[in-house]
UniProtKB/TrEMBL annotation, chain A:
UniProt keyword list: Cell membrane, Membrane, Transmembrane, Transmembrane helix
Membrane topology annotation: Multi-pass membrane protein
Compartments, record wording: Cell membrane
Ranges in a coiled coil: none
Record-annotated membrane-spanning stretches: 12-33, 53-75, 87-104, 110-128, 140-160, 200-219, 240-264, 276-293, 300-317, 329-348
Entry keyword Protein transport: no
Lineage: Bacteria, Pseudomonadati, Pseudomonadota, Alphaproteobacteria, Rhodobacterales
Top-level taxon in the UniProt lineage: Bacteria
Protein name: ABC transporter permease
UniProt cross-references to InterPro entries, sorted A to Z: ABC_transp_permease
PANTHER family: ABC TRANSPORTER, PERMEASE PROTEIN (PTHR47089), GUANOSINE ABC TRANSPORTER PERMEASE PROTEIN NUPP (PTHR47089:SF1)
Listed CDD domains: TM_PBP1_transp_TpRbsC_like
Source organism of this protein record: Aliiroseovarius zhejiangensis
TrEMBL record, chain B:
Membrane-spanning ranges: 12-29, 49-75, 95-115, 158-175, 205-231, 251-270, 290-309
InterPro entries in UniProt: ABC_transp_permease
Compartments, record wording: Cell membrane
Name of the featured protein: ABC transporter permease
Signal peptide segment: none
Keywords, alphabetical: Cell membrane, Membrane, Transmembrane, Transmembrane helix
Pfam families with a match to the protein in the record: BPD_transp_2
Membrane-protein topology: Multi-pass membrane protein
Cited CDD domains: TM_PBP1_transp_TpRbsC_like
Amino acid sequence: MQKMPKWADVALIPLLNLLIAFVLSGLVILAIGENPIKALQTMITGALGSTYGWGYTLYYATNFIFTGLAVSIAFKAAMFNIGGEGQAMIGGLGVALVCLYIPFPHWSVALLFAMAGGAIFGAAWAFIPAYLQARRGSHVVITTIMFNFIAASLLNYVLVNVLRPQGEMNPQTAAFPEATHLPTLHEVLAPIGISFSKSAPVNVSLFVALAACVIVYLLMWRSRLGYEIRAFGLSQDASVYAGISPFKIIMVAMLLSGGLSGMMSINNTMGEAERLVLNSVEGAGFIGIAVALMGRNHPFGVLLAALLFGFLYQGGSELSLWTKIPRELVTVIQALVILFTGALDNMVRGPVERIFIRAAKRGAN
Amino acid sequence: MDFLTIIQIADSALRLATPLLLACLAGLFSERAGIFDIGLEGKILASAFFSAAVAAATGSVWLGLLAGVASSIAFSGVHGLASITFQGNQLISGVALNFFASGITILIGTAWFGLGGRTPSLSGGQRFSPVELPFANAVADVPILGPIYSDLLSGHTILVYVALLMVPLSWFVLYRTRFGLRLRAVGENPAAVDTAGVSVIRLRYAAMLIAGTLCGLAGVYLATGLAAGFVKEMSAGRGYIALAALIFARWRPWHALYATLLFGLLEAIANRYQNIDLGTFVIPVQFMQALPYILTVIILAGFGGTAVAPKAGGQPYVKER
């Protein structure tokens, strides 16, 4: 039974959810004695008012595209991968090892190897939760949460005791060699005469992320494997009768998910910090959950949602610079978006469906 | 390691286990009723903040306790709304509430106290003070048993004893009352409970209420008993460790006590000794910190018996029409 047109499901409901989240956040801002309209203006100017702002917005969006795609692939296979944070941390380790220990002639070669390093390490970190889900039925949500904490401890150990250069006080690796420096958007656009902020961290990883959107789309909607993943996610029983192996789908979907999360590190670790630091992921793995939900698990939706969260993230840090509103406002908005798009979806969907059904009836009469 | 050190570590383990135990029992009631509760972490954090903030503002720790527990129950209410009434995804709801807590505590805290999210340090009547058990001083000199009684068991805040009492109480409620039987049934087979004419929705909301209260106490203890005030992200993953302990305990109250005591002990040891030198090799402190999570994964992997969760966990109940 078609309850409402497709556009309402794909665009209207997410927008309404977003609107509610924003209105509630506005009320929170009012409640703490600030002006929500002025706050929004500050965010827009700070995130989109200059190429510097755009540079940060796109930099954050790059992270969120990777983690959003990662969460959405797992969602498509009916699994909730909360472990993006840990997988991205360990992916960072993979990127760091590649950059530190392999002498590269050119950044392009370094990028390819770093992508592989990040993806392999990230996927490896998803392997045990995936295997336990597939073979033992241990809930992947719980195991990936546990693996986030284990990843944090492991990374802490490695940075403090193994990779920290002598004389360095902070738990971080040595700076990566010059040859692994990824061109920033400024360096890419300067030769063709477009001026872009020099100090913004957005770099060629953005193009890798955009390519990842296309590849994930082709994989999920234009390949046999993607079909199997989606079929499995919709109905496990039916897919088993169609000859699809649950073990294979769970493993493949989780490894792809972990790999994409891990690949995020080419942006934050290789592109921005150019060394591995302790808290390099900064919650991007978790924001991937909001991005995937908001983007309806579709690569194009993920791209838009990632841009939105990139804007919120950059706008939020500008906000904390210029007003008394701390940047944790973004966490609140993120929480509300997850709550309304992911958990309270039926609260909005019910009334909207009723409106459409009523309109359809009136149209029929 | 001498006897006094052992007593000190055990004492610290008991303190650290208390918030874990309360949160673990909260998760126990929730999950036994068929509602996954990933949001323990957020409830602890919210309760810690509101208890500390209200205690600081009013000077009364008891008002703080009320505020903390109320905030945690409000979180449980939203979780119930999402997972019971609107039949949404319980895991996603829990994740959202955790983020909400970590953001909103800083937002309100900064606006309220202007200390970057902290509350002012609590002292005197703004905190729970230690309770001396009867004869604690008198028996202190008795060898072995004396220190165990007067140093280890006596001298904790009231919430520690409340937490310990909650264990037999939870056991009694779950296994010896009609309510408990129904609650457990609703987590295994809600349709059967519904057929018997008992409201699944009401039972599950009741479970949310209990979980909110217990988890609230965990947060209150954290900010006003264990520490003296709220600091940013002070729950520090305790909600997740409680979740781990719940699996470790296989959803049983007495085992929840043992599991949380074990995890409290691990934390106490990790706090006291940075790296443990075993002569041939050194156990790094990071390993100790990760140990509860590693142990839980091992349990989940099925070593040492299987961990079977309540059957209807995570699925919203849709009444037949």
